Amino acid sequence: QGQLVESGGGLVQAGGSLRLSCAASGSIFGINAMGWYRQAPGKQRELVAVITSDGSTNYADSVKGRFTISRDNAKIAVYLQMNSLQPEDTAVYYCYADRPWYQSVYWGQGTQVTVSS
């Protein structure tokens, strides 16, 4: 059984960039949407960006124009390019893969992004 493995988090200064990666380790079938959530300390988890199997994307208003989501279906991978990072982007970022036919969602382990002012 597969799992999602994240990489790419870290510490960056305000205005900097990071690229998050999330790839399947093992087989995961029936994926439709993939995306990223984030959770800051003391706050609820929020959807950051989502991309469907046909490439349609949607973003939270707070990241539009700064973040770009992409995916590689052959690798079962999703990426998040984050530019112009701000301290309010500091959070643990989680990738996910939605499998509607199986009524299940795979989650990554989470990766910390910290933006210093």
Describe the structure.
The chain is an all-beta fold and 117 residues long. Helices cover 0% and strands 54% of the residues. A hairpin with a 4-residue loop joins β7 and β8 (77-82). It is globular and about 45 Å long. The chain starts with a strand and ends with a strand.
Secondary structure: elements and pairs:
Elements: E1 3-7, E2 10-13, E3 18-25, E4 34-39, E5 46-51, E6 57-59, E7 67-72, E8 77-82, E9 91-99, E10 104-107, E11 111-116
Parallel strand pairs: 2-11
Antiparallel strand pairs: 1-3, 3-8, 4-5, 4-9, 5-6, 7-8, 9-10, 9-11
Concise synopsis of the structure shown:
With 117 residues, this protein is mostly beta strands. It is 0% helix and 54% strand.
Topology, number of strands: 11
Overall SS class: mainly beta
Distance between the termini: 41 Å
Q: Please estimate the helix content.
A: under 10%
Per DSSP, the total helix count is: 0
Characterize the biggest β-sheet: 7 strands, mixed
Mean pLDDT value? 95
Q: Approximately what portion of the residues adopt beta-strand conformation?
A: over 45%
Poorly predicted spans: none
- Order of helical and strand elements: EEEEEEEEEEE
Radius of gyration: 14 Å
Which shape, going by the Cα principal axes?
A: globular
